[in-house]
Known about the structure:
The complex is a heterotrimer of chains A (590), B (314) and C (382). Chain A has 16 helices and 22 strands. Chain A is of the alpha+beta class and 590 residues long. In chain A, the strands form five sheets. Chain A has a seven-stranded mixed beta sheet. In chain B, 66% of the residues lie in helices and 0% in strands. In chain B, helix 2 (35-52) crosses helix 4 and helix 4 packs antiparallel against helix 5. Chain B is elongated and about 80 Å long. Chain B starts with 20 loop residues before the first helix and ends in a 6-residue tail after the last helix. Residues 1-20 of chain B have low confidence and may be disordered. A two-stranded antiparallel sheet of chain C has the order 1-2. In chain C, strand 1 and strand 2 (71-74) form a beta hairpin. Chain C is globular and about 85 Å long. At the B-C interface, helix 5, helix 6, helix 9, helix 10 and helix 11 of B face helix 1, helix 6, helix 7, helix 11 and helix 13 of C.
Amino acid sequence: MTRSPSWSLRLATLFAGAVIVVAACGPAASTSPSQSASAAPPTTGPTVVAEAEQYPADGGVTCASGGNPGSYDGEDYSGKVQLIEAPDPYTVIFHLCSTDTAFLEKMAFSVFAIYDADWLEANVPNGNALTTMNGTGPYKLDQWQPGAEIDYSAFDGYWGDKAVAPNAVLRWGAESAQRLNELRSGNIEGMTLVGANDFEAVASDSSLQLASPPAGTNLNTFYLGMNHDKAPWDNAKVREAVSYAINKQRLVDNFYPPGSEVAKYFTPCALDFACEGDPFPDFNLQKAKDLLTEAGYPNGFETKLQYRPAVRGYLPQPPQIAEDLQAQLADVGIKVTLDEQDNAQYIVNSNTGALDGLFMLGWGADYPEITNFMDYHFGAGCTAAFGACYPDVASQLTTGGSTTDQATRTAAYAAANSALVQDVPMVPLAHGAFANAYVAGVSVAQASPLSNELLFRMSVPSGGDTLRFMQNSEPGSVFCADETDGEALRACEQVLEGLYGFEINGSAAVPVLATSCDPNADGTVWTCHLRQGVKFQDGADFTAHDVIVSMALQWDAAHPLHKGKSSQFEYWAGLWGDYLHASQQPAAPE
Amino acid sequence: MSDVTFGGGGQMPQVAAEPLIGARRRVLARLLRQRSAIVGLALLAFLVLVAIFADVIATHDPIKVLFDAEPGIRPRTAPCIHLLGCPAVQPQHLLGTDGNARDEFSRVIHGTRVSLFIGFVTVVGAILIGTFIGAVAGFFGGWVDNVLMRLMDMLLAFPALLLALVIVTVLGKGLINAMIAVAIVSIPVYARVMRAAVLSVRELDFVTAARALGDSPASILTRRVVPNSITPLIVQATLGIGTAVLEVAALSFLGLAAQPPTAEWGTMIGNERNQLFTAPWLIIAPGVALTLTVLAFNLLGDGLRDALDPRLAT
Amino acid sequence: MIQFIVRRLVISVPVVLGVVFIVFLLARIVPGDPCVAALGEHANPKSCAAFNSRIGLDLPIFPFIVKHGSSYNLSSDPSSITNNQFVRFLGDLAHGDLGTSVKHGRPVTTLIFERLPTTVELTFYALLFAIAAGIGLGIIAASRHNSKRDLFTMMIANLGVSIPVFVLGLMLAFAFGVLLKDTPFSLPPSGRLSAGLRFQTIAEAWGAASLSGPPRAVLDFLSNMYTVNGLITGQWGLLGDALRHLVLPAIALGTIPMAIIARMTRSSLLEVLGREYIRTAEAKGLRPRVVLFRHALRNALLPVVTVIGLSIASLLSGAVLTETIFGLTGIGLTVFESISARDYVVIQGLALLVALIYVIVNLITDISYGLLDPRVRLTQLS
């Protein structure tokens, strides 16, 4: 997202500069910038100490440049964040090593929610942070009954619109039929992930309502992958044959919920630049057979179709879809045996390139930007699932992700997409739709494309006081900085907020705890102005110090608060590249 | 788990070592007088016929996906029976189509073959091993008996399904592995039956006489002892087939036994378990088939037990 | 009598040891790398080396036997006699340490503590249903042997044994949770409590919230059985709601034992009714009902006791399926979950737990049978 530097940015910098000057010349000034002056006299506003702060305190991070790795404190550092500074209690400035076109979307991601620094210090070391929360959000966590439910009640001191329903409950049930049962029996008001076959039933039931995300925002992709370093996928004609061999429309029509689309590009067209360049070819059985003959397999060949049973937005019915692909491939002459693997093992196998057959996999957006889809799979540090990276694609992606200029990005992604059609590391098949279901009287029923349903806006019909919502599974913990599963993130999102957030029912990033975050000309420095007068649920004030600590504990592997359920904080490295003191990153879950 | 009733030693009829034809006829007559046994037998005969003539009865290939053959067909379509008013333009599917647009009726019919196969083979396997263990334990007694029976106790220390679950996880998924797991889990029952039979007969006069005459243990076992244990074994086996079918179906329901595209009832229910409201027939049809099959064996087993137990002579 | 009990206890010991051994073995043979299952995408040689060393997976399995991947080698390292996984496992066991679940990040004992009450409660009510309905049906059938009533009740019993738990559970959920939704007969199709129901634990209700340690643990365990909690603390709303949620799973789970008990009651009662002392009682002019209940039933119920003990196995097995269908987070569901996730620490702990429960139940059954029937005691001792 491009923003031109505004006059407000200049004003803010000026103001920050003035504050620093004043502080430095102040009466009780000491030379160390991290020492505070004596506490300001009590005022009606929040009592904040006028200190400047930055992380790391010595500011000693050097970025990678000209082929040399970046470094910090004697170790290599390849991350994107160079410095986070808080010149005053209501401003936080992020200095990045390179442009980030998705800064706001990343800040809106629930993993980067802001915690109260004092609360963190009291609750992370003893593990309370895994089961309790203290946020700025509209609901506060009352009780987590393990295995049963999470109870919330409205936070009266919330800075924004108070929660509509005084109480909320989050429950979970693994089967969509079970959730629908509960909805129909009146035990819950809302549920996620309606089963593919239940859409019509819910839509036609006047006591229920089907909530779908905005049309065309299916931010996921289902694809059939091949490792081109392994036979027979090392034969380019074989891969090309596969790209013609699948009747994608048949899959979408019969196994996906209404609203799903055939995938012609890897990235869903809802995202900018996703559908530039050449699309993947349409289904053509004869062409597929001819290509196979040209490749040297006139009678086809035998291989495996590998998949895992986990239901995802991109894969609503794994066994049925696998069996249909089996039938379709048989028509072309490729005889596959189904190889269903364990959920976790499958991901490891894909990450290590061990999947040697045709494998079914997909991707759901973490944040709504093309870099989230393309870079992980085909960029410079591409996943090993498809074999060695394709340099033609990777270089275009690097270009596309390091500038904010529209024309350059369009050209780069067009070239990348066309290259993908030639190289065929995988064949994109579908973008899966999903829907949530609610009782008819619930208002602001939500189906967030990013699994970001916010309960505080929803009302309980017939004047009840508790909104009960059912998701797929129980959160692993509620210390979401260290979680990756959407089921945990949803539990946190009711209580915690970040600098930005995603709009209700949409995928645009909107300011939440920050009133705005403004980039400089090349998108390497983002200045965030924080909302004032915000309180945490335990009464503490929200200031820049909280932002710094919330970020630092994830960023720095040596930080005393770098401690969670697994203490991996995966999303920090996934989205920002690397940790400070990476050698101290725990190798195994605590 | 089926219970075992077994007549105490002293009360068994003095059946000679070689079964008499007359005794068999009497048993049969008694059997037929048990109404539940008749129902069970009839049901079983019906199932066996269905299994044998599955190819003829089924209307389609059970594993063939019909998207090409019937353009416009959708998965999970409702049953369409022309006789009952379904328009003739729609292709006839007596039980509709399953989640992959295959004919459900044909899959249920062919499932009979799979289930009967599962039941018989599993139980035969368990019997072969179990009776051997039980006979050895009962005949030799002493520490052999102790060790073997403690081993059986250890197997019995785990609930059947859980142990089978773990065994299948170790061996890997698949129908054969599931059958092996269920067979292993069923061995102790037959071992105990056989051992009890051996114990009861061991002290009888004609066995002592045979030993005095110098007959080897093996020949005594096979010619004198085994025929006397046939009765409870048959009863237990009949009941055991039903149990084996149920347990493998449960493993299939959990996704661990029959693999696609095999048409097995447990897998079919497991695949469609979320469709209870949208396509209940996909659960009800194989569910009824499974219940009827197990019911047949249970009724027959009950009837056999009643018929063969002289104390309940009407 | 004491001799009898002691003898049974002594026989159980090798069984328990054998069970421990089998459990240990099974958990190690389960294919799939536990490091991979635990760390998922973060599993690489370095992190796995650290993980294995922490869990102790790099030790030999038994004295002199080392496992590499899926192959087993012999090693001649004498220190492996005491420094191996089995010894370590036994040591942990002696301390009551069953390991830490990798999927849940909590100790297995904690998990068991949290989830066992659910299964115990469910099993209890299923057994209650099975005994009440089973004995009732059995008596009805036996009182008119070979009549239509007999046939009918036996048909029901047979159906009960034949219908798979998962099919029955789904049908019941559909019937009572959806078809009968707005009627007074509706029952919740899943879960243990209605969402949003607030209640107090026993400790809180008795003002002992600051209590800790074993007494607190016991109280929390009892609190987690919601019907017990409701009963003890007088929270009738909690009791009622919990019972309503238990009806369908208890029936689904208890149907098979019910059928078995019914059949056993019937056949045992028939056998007793055929005995001479019954004919004497009838000849004395006693009414059939008195004959049945006062003279026949007591003796007839002895084998039924054995069967009840045996049905615990069926209940524990069926709990896996019932808990899955009704969304109850108990031990059964955890077993299946941990097998799917290769959480072998939990598999091990739960297998041990289940086996121990079963051994104890068997022991109790044997002892009670011995208490009830003097002949058994005396025969066993000879």
